[in-house]
Request: fold
Amino acid sequence: MTKQSQAERRELRFETLEELLAEVDRLVEADRAGRLRAVGNWTAGQILGHIAAWIEYGYDGYPMAKPPWFVRFMARRFFKRMLRRGMQPGFSIPGVEGGTYGIDDMPTEEAAERLKRAIARLQAGEPAKFHSPAFGTISEEDRIQLTLRHAELHLGFLVPDATGEQ
Reply:
């Protein structure tokens, strides 16, 4: 991530999944109109699909093993703070190509629909079958808050441009 992309990144804060869904719709509309800029390293489709993938992992299984105990210890120690303050850009999972999982490129609208389906599972209260490799067992409310913080981080790299300039 460059300093330029960091400077252009939007600071977002979602209180509810409905607010997140409204932002997804706004971004899709901006993309359709040719007014959406990605200011980081990923496309809009990669970002939306990535957020969806990490929700789905709780239901379908995570693609990685548990990190070492000291990483889990530190992650759990800072979990509540992260839920309050948000996530910081630049974190990479060591040894994983691209630094994380779930960054396959796909069309924006397809990725948005995938994300909406994943969010619907959260809204329906479907219990997670798999625990977070880093955070362990978390409450459904914390899963929702984690999703909101994760979405804030990544959707901040998508900038709807009112002027239509690319």
